[in-house]
């Protein structure tokens, strides 16, 4: 499931045109695909309204109206902004009328309302007739279907004034970024991608169940505890001992072979009874500062529950020189430049931390989080896991995954620590770093979704996320 910006779609259309696949054909394909999909949700007795705009999104609506009427559905086409302006939509409109099909006026009640007013080429806020008709449509009790994206939503940014409140949005060829951004995602309703005959893929995609099934490795039966490597977790302080506990359990429940927790003597004392499976490096952070990185480690996570920025900075200087993949979280996330090194650096900020790291205000980040995560990942050469609803995982080579699992139950202190522990385990054990990171994020969200099936989201604890992991991972093994 790929994600394309409005500009990319335009470019793809131009390439298609040059290679002989004209927009008229793409529009025909779009209308037919919409018809095939819609048939699953409508009946012949339903009164269907199709609202078409003047651009190509409107053209898709015109083709859909033809298919519906020619197959015996009760469908009326309206053009609230007037006749098509786009050359291709106008051609399809001419074909529509030459088939003896009519244009109607909005009148009475409808069972189904289709929004083909504006698509990827429009810039909100809405104006004129379009604004009025969207306001009217939102007040109707009908099944609401948007073509490509809900009118009033921008393709690439997460904001909207008043937009079409869809039950379903059928995205053509691929998703647009706004399908995953606060301020617009809720207008989409349930979303689905429909193919229209274009071959292009994107470096941005949704990390789906299929990806996890394809990449999540079965635990080898001949494995021993050394097979998966030892993870070093530098976390927890006398004031925040719980962070080390949550991250440690997250790592162990995710299958880490051996875990060394570098923490204060006091925290190690508290944790020893709760996580007897781990080894402890007393004053581990200080030891790293002094150049004593425990030997034989496969990866290192640093940050949860660490309060002292100077000490962290010194420890990072030492760790950057090691060949360990590094997961940097919470207290260790600051504005800094990252060195180029062989092993990966994975940062796991929430929007507030990302704002601290970049100086970009949180609302701007949220409006455009795919873009900003990718920009940061590429400029700094680090894997950026920008957390929150629809976590974005951006890689230095431009690849980007959006994770859709998880719910508001995760909006609670400690769940980030759990994820850091999970990442430490997955990065230590899995061969491919991209799927290791994405699968950890996916399973973290799945735990919350599993909990939400039978229990109130608000009652979820970070420790529950870890506890549910074995059940979740079982279905992928
Ligand atoms: N490759 C594909 O995915 C294809 C998708 N198709 C469809 O085409 C649209 C994009 O079409 P485009 O003509 O570029 O733009 P729109 O239809 O979204 O709108 C242009 C139209 O809207 C007016 N307008 C712009 N902003 C506003 C506003 N704020 N208020 C009111 N009116 C506005 C503008 O003046 C123009 O008249 C894509 O989404 C798909 O649905 C193709 O069918 C095939 C290839
Ligand atoms: K639309």
Description:
The structure is a single chain. With 477 residues, the chain is α/β, with parallel strands linked by helices. It is 40% helix and 16% strand. The chain is built from 16 helices and 16 strands. The chain has a ten-stranded mixed β-sheet, with helices on both faces. Strands 2-1-3-4-5-6 form a six-stranded parallel β-sheet. α2 crosses α3. The radius of gyration is 26 Å and the shape is elongated. The protein binds ligand LP7C6HRI and potassium ion. The site of potassium ion has 12 residues, from β3 and β4. Ligand LP7C6HRI binds next to α1, α2 and α3. This is Bifunctional NAD(P)H-hydrate repair enzyme. Keywords: ATP-binding, Isomerase, Lyase, Metal-binding, Multifunctional enzyme, NAD, NADP, Nucleotide-binding, Potassium.
List keywords for this structure.
binds potassium ion; six-stranded parallel sheet; binds ligand LP7C6HRI; 16 helices; alpha/beta; 477 residues; ten-stranded mixed sheet
List the helices and strands and how they pair.
Blueprint: H1 6-18, H2 23-38, E1 47-52, H3 56-70, E2 74-78, H4 87-98, E3 112-116, H5 128-139, E4 143-147, E5 168-172, E6 190-194, E7 204-207, H6 209-215, E8 230-234, H7 241-253, E9 258-263, H8 265-274, E10 279-282, H9 284-289, E11 297-302, H10 309-320, E12 326-328, E13 345-347, H11 351-358, H12 362-367, H13 369-380, E14 383-386, E15 391-394, E16 400-403, H14 415-429, H15 433-454, H16 462-474
Parallel strand pairs: 1-2, 1-3, 3-4, 4-5, 5-6, 7-16, 8-9, 8-11, 9-10, 11-12, 12-13, 13-14
Antiparallel strand pairs: 14-15, 15-16
This protein binds ligand LP7C6HRI and potassium ion.
Ligand LP7C6HRI binds at residues 9, 12-13, 23, 26-27, 30, 53-60, 85-86, 118-127, 130, 147-148, 172-173, 198.
């Amino acid at each position: 499931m790929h994600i394309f910006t409005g500009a990319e779609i335009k470019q793809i259309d131009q390439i298609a045109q040059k290679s002989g696949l004209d927009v008229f054909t793409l529009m025909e394909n779009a209308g037919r695909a919409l018809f095939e999909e819609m048939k699953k949700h409508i009946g012949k007795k339903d009164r269907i309204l199709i609202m078409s705009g003047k651009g190509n999104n409107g053209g898709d609506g015109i083709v859909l109206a033809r298919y519906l009427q020619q197959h015996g559905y009760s469908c009326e086409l309206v053009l609230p902004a007037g006749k098509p302006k786009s050359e291709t939509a106008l051609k399809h409109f001419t074909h529509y009328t030459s088939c003896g099909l009519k244009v109607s006026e909005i009148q009475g009640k409808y069972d189904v309302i289709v929004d083909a007013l504006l698509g990827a080429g429009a810039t909100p806020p809405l104006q004129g007739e379009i604004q009025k008709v969207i306001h009217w449509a939102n007040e109707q009790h009908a099944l609401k279907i948007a073509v490509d994206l809900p009118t009033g939503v921008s393709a690439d940014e997460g904001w909207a004034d008043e937009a079409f409140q869809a039950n379903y949005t059928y995205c053509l060829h691929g998703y647009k970024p706004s399908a995953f951004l606060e301020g617009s995602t809720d207008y989409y309703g349930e979303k689905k991608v429909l193919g229209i005959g274009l071959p292009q893929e994107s470096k941005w995609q949704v990390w789906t169940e299929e990806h996890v099934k394809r990449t999540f490795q079965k635990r080898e039966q001949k494995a021993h505890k050394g097979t998966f490597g030892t993870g070093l977790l530098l976390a927890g302080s006398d004031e925040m001992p719980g962070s080390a506990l949550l991250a440690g359990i997250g790592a162990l429940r995710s299958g880490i072979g051996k875990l060394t927790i570098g923490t204060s003597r006091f925290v190690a004392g508290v944790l020893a009874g709760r996580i007897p499976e781990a080894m402890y490096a007393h004053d581990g952070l200080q030891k790293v500062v002094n150049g004593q990185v425990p030997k034989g480690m496969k990866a290192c996570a640093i940050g949860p529950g660490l309060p002292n920025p100077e000490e962290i900075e010194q420890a990072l200087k030492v760790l950057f020189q090691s060949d360990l993949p590094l997961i940097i979280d919470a207290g260790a996330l600051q504005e800094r430049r990252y060195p180029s090194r062989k092993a990966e650096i994975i940062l796991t900020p929430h929007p507030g931390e990302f704002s601290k790291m970049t100086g970009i205000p949180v609302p701007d980040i949220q409006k455009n989080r795919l873009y900003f995560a990718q920009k940061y990942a590429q400029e700094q050469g680090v894997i950026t896991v920008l957390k929150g609803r629809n976590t974005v995982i951006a890689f230095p080579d431009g690849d980007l995954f959006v994770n859709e699992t998880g719910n508001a139950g995760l909006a609670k202190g400690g769940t980030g620590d759990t994820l850091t522990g999970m990442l430490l385990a997955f990065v230590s054990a899995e061969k491919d770093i991209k799927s290791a990171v994405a699968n950890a994020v996916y399973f973290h969200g799945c735990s919350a979704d599993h909990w939400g099936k039978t229990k109130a989201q608000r009652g979820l604890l970070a420790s529950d996320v870890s506890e549910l992991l074995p059940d979740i991972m079982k279905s992928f093994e």
